[in-house]
Amino acid sequence: MKIVKHSGAVVNFNPDKLISSLLKSGADVFTAESIMKEISNEIYDGISTKNIYKKAFALLKKHTNSHAARYNLRAAIEMLGPEGFYFEKYIARLFEAEKYETKTNVVLQGNCVMHEVDILIKKNNVVSMVECKFHGGREAASDVKVPLYVFSRFNDLRHKGFTLFSTKEKISNCWIVTNTRFTADAIAFAECSGINLLSWDYPEKRSLKSRNNHDCLYPVTCLTTLTKAEKEKLLLLDIILVKELIGNKLGLKEIGISSGRINNVLKEVADLCKCY
Description:
- The strands form three sheets. Strands 4, 5, 6, 8, 9 and 11 form a six-stranded mixed sheet that branches. Strands 2-1-3 form a three-stranded mixed sheet.
- A hairpin with a 5-residue loop joins strand 1 (2-4) and strand 2.
- Among the domains are: 2-63, no CATH class; 85-214, Trna Endonuclease, Chain: A, domain 1.
- It has twelve helices and eleven strands.
- Helix 2 (29-40) packs across helix 3, helix 3 packs antiparallel against helix 4 (65-71) and helix 4 (65-71) packs across helix 12.
- It is of the alpha/beta class.
C-alpha cells in the first residue's frame, strides 16, 4: 500500500511506525493495535499521511483525551503561529523550566546595527541569545543560511556589554530553535561554530518532542477539550503551557468555559501532566 507524505513523496505504508507513534502518546498495546486494525480497513492506495493522522487522532480521542493530546503535539506547536510570537513565548517557558532567567523581544545596539533578539536567557552567569525560526508547514526546513545569518548577528553583539538581567553582561552563547527541522548543512555549520540547535527532532535526546514527553511541557494548543478560539484566548492571557492550567478554574472561567466543561478540561490537564 502506497501513501503520500507531507512532502509529496510516495512511500510504503508502515503499520509498525503508526503503532509506535500511538504507543508514544501513552496508549497501551491493545488500544494501539485496535486503532491500527481499524485504520488498515479504511486506508487506500495513495492516501495522504495527513488523512491517516486525522483518522488515528479521532480514534485515539475516543479512548483518552490526554493520549490524543500527546499524539497531536506537533500540530499543536504549529498552532503557535502563524507569526511565531507565541512560539517564542513557548520556547522561553521551556528554558524557564530548566531554571533559566528569560527576557523576550529585546532590542540591542550591536557594534554595527540594531538587533531585535527573540529571547535572552541566563543561567550560571552565562547569557545567551535565542533566535526562533517558526515554519507553518512541517516539511519546511531551516537551511544553512539561517545559522550563517544568526551567527553574524551574534558576532555583532557578543563583544559589547549590556545591562540585561542585573549588572553589565555580555552575550557569550547562541541558540537557534525551530519547530520543524534543520538541514544537514545547517547542523554541520552550527556544530563547527559552537551554535546550539533545538528542533522537533534534534538533538535526539533533548529535542522539542522528547522535552515534552519527559518534562510535561505541552502547549495549551494540544488540549482536545478546548476549541481553537478558546486556546487562542488562553494564549492572549499568557497561559502558554498546559501545566499552567493545573487547578486553574479562574483562568478557564475567564475565557467563558462553563462549570461543567471546566471539570473535563482539568481532567485532561491532570492526565496530560502525568509525565512518563
